[in-house]
Amino acid sequence: MKFFFFHLMPYADLDLDYDKKYNSAWITLPNSYFDPKKGHALYNRYLDELEMADTLGFDGVCVNEHHQNAYGLMPIPGVMAGALARRTTNAKIAVLGRALPLLNNPVTVAEEYAMLDVITGGRLIAGFVRGIGAEYHSWGVNPANSHERFHEAHDIIIKAWTEIGPVPYEGKHYNFEYINCWPRPYQQPHPPIWIPSQGSRETIEWAAHASRRYTYLQTFSPVAALAHFMKLYSEAADRQGWTATPEHKGWSVPTYVAESDGRAYAEAKPHIENFLNKFLKMPIEMLAPPGYQSLASVKAIRAAKESIRKHQTIDELIAKGMFLCGSPASLRAKIAQYQSEIGFGYLLANLQFGTLPHELTRKSATLFAQEVMPHFRDAAAPSAAREPAHAK
Amino acid sequence: MPGRETFETIAGCKTRIMRGGRGAPLLFLHGGGGASVWVPFMEKLAEKFEVIVPEHPGFGGSDSPEWLDNIGDVAYFYLDLIEQLGLKGIHLVGTSLGGWIACEIAVRDDSALASITLVDPVGIRVKGVRKADIFLLSPEESIQHLFHGKALVEGALARVPSEAEMDIAARNRLTMAKLSWEPRLFNPHLYKWMHRIKTPTLVVWGENDRIVPKEYGPAFVDLIPGSKLEMIPECGHVPHVEKPNELAAKIIAFAGASR
């Protein structure tokens, strides 16, 4: 199994009483809540944490994309990936944005990713997402066109990477006379593509298509949902006449390790609960604008509405397997159990969440790297793992 | 007597149409909430007109055709509908989104129209006058924004919609987003051609509209030659629900003068 340190880079200094006046830390929370001096310290702290992950032996680091919110301060994830490109040596850099439908020109992503891939000598992992519903409010892009624009933008990027330009593109939402991507990507035919999702059946079918076989990442979900969606992926692959392997499946999950279960619980509790109840909180109208999901999904969300709105606790999260929290021994046991049942090849640990301070993040990540990761080094290693460039 | 439900296939789109009453044709174009039910307002108009209430493509009992992308598609769909049903001398009434569609039809071809009544329409932008963000309002806030009368708000808040109604509402909302998310609730090119509307036009506004402020009323009147504005006091965004008799009386009087 391969391990990645996945950072969301929240505005951890957020005044947590914001919710007395505002209903979410997204879209409409005034940016007067952001103090640039504190932001300066946070950005540099977070980059330090990802650089540390490289020296601790993580297989990769992940940056993320969200817009106009306190939950994640990486509206342009390529800036962070660029900063990391020259300060890391072995770790893969996975950009788990870019929200393709938001873009007026998807060729910019082909260019940006190709630059990162060439600079790092092939350490880039290219994420493609639709963004969460809130993004469509923040950017004004029509959510009813989200799927169509995602598919067209994806096709354009692949064309830019795999066809010798200039070539035209004729679509409904995008049209180009000259696609001719300079630079071309270092990895050929293109960098590995990862598709993070909360479990859209449509996305899974699409990622598992025989012509794509993209690694599917389940993000922040109960372990039962993880198992369900990974099974769907395997079944979709079977129908397409190929067999999915662990390298096609990843799990992104908040993770905290401490010396004992009790200590992990006590240290993580306020911060993971802030993550859930302060940073992630949003009304359904923000989360699910019309067209972002299928009408069937809208119906399902309606049924689950109550559970979304109520205060959530660390106990529920641990019980549902949405948060890996405990001693190294407990985590080894849990990960081993889930891995054997579900068969994912990548674990993307959110080792910083909510208000978790640097010292605890550092301690937890170090314990994780030294006492959890080595246990899985030989089990279910993704077969197509590429060697880092400097080793060539 | 409630309207008869019929279905017509127009431009390949199976379309649900309610019809009732006798007289000159009155084509009612609904707003973002759809027109699934024959309401007292329609019944009132059916005393004087043959009232024809289609559901737009993508709304209620009508199909969502592949070709439906923008408001212009809806306008051409209605020009096809008018032709196919053989309608002439039409009194066109559009509320909110329906008012926008009415303008888009009329700038293209108003030869089959005898009068136009726009009720709290959208479709243009008055810079600096903000419409409500209909897509970010909670269901409760939407109701509070829609009606002015307290009793109406409380009645609507107390009512629990059925599963079927919620399914229709979700689909209506999706089509509404498709047509109006960006630019929000207007076509940036429409205003340039509204001088082409030669049909007598009445603009009606609920004085207490919290979705589209009443400042929009004069802007429509400025753009449509010879049009006039009438306000309905103590009324929100949906006068046909909140003040059905007042609105019907205005339409009957105006249409009578425009025959």
Key traits:
heterodimer, A: 392 residues, alpha/beta, TIM Barrel, two-stranded antiparallel sheet, 42% helix, 14% strand, disordered C terminus, B: 259 residues, Rossmann fold, eight-stranded mixed β-sheet, 9 helices, 36% helix
Question: How would you characterize this protein structure?
Answer:
- The complex is a heterodimer of chains A (392) and B (259).
- With 392 residues, chain A is α/β, with parallel strands linked by helices.
- Helix content of chain A is 42%, strand content 14%.
- Chain A has 13 helices and eleven strands.
- An eight-stranded parallel beta barrel of chain A has the order 1-2-3-4-7-8-9-11, surrounded by seven helices.
- In chain A, helix 1 packs parallel to helix 13 and helix 6 crosses helix 7.
- The model of chain A is unreliable at 380-392 (pLDDT under 50).
- The mean pLDDT of chain B is 97.
- Chain B has helices spanning 40-45, 71-84, 97-108, 139-146, 150-158, 163-180, 216-223, 239-242, 244-257, and strands at 4-10, 13-20, 24-29, 49-54, 90-95, 113-119, 201-206, 228-232.
- An eight-stranded mixed sheet of chain B has the order 1-2-4-3-5-6-7-8, with helices on both faces.
- Chain B has one domain (4-257): Alpha/Beta hydrolase fold, catalytic domain (Rossmann fold).
- In chain B, 36% of the residues lie in helices and 20% in strands.
- The two termini of chain B are 25 Å apart.
- Chain B is globular.
- At the A-B interface, helix 9 and helix 10 of A face helix 6 of B.
- Under CATH, the homologous superfamily of chain A reads Luciferase-like domain
What oligomeric state is this?
Answer: heterodimer
Order of helices and strands of chain B: EEEHEHEHEHHHEHEHH
Proportion of residues in β-strands of chain A: 5-15%
CATH class membership of chain B:
Alpha Beta
- Output the strand order for the largest sheet of chain B: 1-2-4-3-5-6-7-8
By CATH, the superfamily of chain B comes out as: Alpha/Beta hydrolase fold, catalytic domain
Which word captures the global form of chain A? globular
Query: Number of DSSP strands of chain A?
Result: 11
Report how far the terminal alpha carbons of chain B are from each other. Answer: 25 Å
SSE pattern of chain A, N- to C-terminal: EHEHEHEHHEEEHEHEHHHHEHEH
Would you identify the regions of chain A where 5 or more consecutive residues have pLDDT less than 50?
380-392
CATH architecture label of chain A: Alpha-Beta Barrel
Helix content of chain B: 25-40%
User: Which CATH architecture of chain B?
Assistant: 3-Layer(aba) Sandwich
* Helical run tally of chain A: 13
